[in-house]
Amino acid sequence: MANYTAQDIKALREQTGAGMLDVKKALDEADGDKAKATEILRVKGLKGVTKREGRTTANGLVAAKVEPGVGTLLEVNCETDFVAKGEKFIALADQVLTQAVASKASDAQALLASSVDDGTVQDLIDGAGATIGEKIEVRRVGRLEGETVVSYLHKTSPDLPAQIGVLVAVKGGDEVVARDIAMHIAAFSPTVLTRDDVDPETVANERRVAEATAKEEGKPEAALPKIVEGRVNGYFKENVLLEQPFAKDSKKTVAKVAEEAGAEVTGFLRFKVGI
């Protein structure tokens, strides 16, 4: 009989994020030696890296780090929520975030190629995936600069790490209004800061759809321009941050709330795991 207990299985599973059956087999092979079992899990995991390449990584977390005048936002993905809430995965994300800040990487490719310890971030990710037994990937990283940058992380489930992350840059005002706007962004998911940031092709398509819909509804020809304009403005109100009704006071736009606080929103980033 192998020299380990149910508590050893639990501890190793939490440490590595590997499945229960894999942990038991590794402990059996290692005769209860947890350090050796961890190495066995890692070696077996590396053999499975290629097999995991096609798997879907729909779970994970978003992490953020803010320093004076700049913020970094990171999304790291895995396959299951069990791994996403594990200490090992969370520690890995923290390590990658630290490297993202240090390297000033503005995209995932640059971050993965940057040097950390005795290899690259990609090597670090591959090693963690081998130990855990799941596909892990850095999906995206972003940097935001501004006079004042604040972050907000939101948990969509109490037993999971943050699934939504926001960075907001403001000029003037204070961090209180900036954080309120960050919370608004987390809830209402705007896609751009101003209507000028919307792709002209998207606007043209919205106009075409609005006109076709109005005609299908039998609206009078003379009324079409006003109807189309109203529906396009509706699209802007839904997607443009500064034109959205503010979460805490829907009678005011985000732009108005910022103005009343003596602030100007100069940029934002929003990541949601898997989206």
Automatic annotation (TrEMBL):
TM spans (from-to): none
Pfam family, one: EF_TS
Protein's organism: Flexivirga caeni
Keyword S-adenosyl-L-methionine: no
A GO MF label: translation elongation factor activity
PROSITE patterns according to UniProt: EF_TS_1, EF_TS_2
Lineage: superkingdom: Bacteria
A GO cellular-component term linked to this record: cytoplasm
Classification lineage: Bacteria, Bacillati, Actinomycetota, Actinomycetes, Micrococcales
Database matches in InterPro entries: EF-Ts_dimer_sf (IPR036402), Transl_elong_EFTs/EF1B (IPR001816), Transl_elong_EFTs/EF1B_dimer (IPR014039), Transl_elong_Ts_CS (IPR018101), UBA-like_sf (IPR009060)
Main location group: cytoplasm
Family: Belongs to the EF-Ts family.
Ranges in a coiled coil: none
Localization in the cell: Cytoplasm
Occurrences of domain Translation elongation factor EFTs/EF1B dimerisation (ranges): 71-274
HAMAP family found in the cross-reference section: EF_Ts (MF_00050)
Region (Involved in Mg(2+) ion dislocation from EF-Tu): 80-83
CDD domains: UBA_EF-Ts
Protein purpose: Associates with the EF-Tu.GDP complex and induces the exchange of GDP to GTP. It remains bound to the aminoacyl-tRNA.EF-Tu.GTP complex up to the GTP hydrolysis stage on the ribosome.
Name this polypeptide is given: Elongation factor Ts
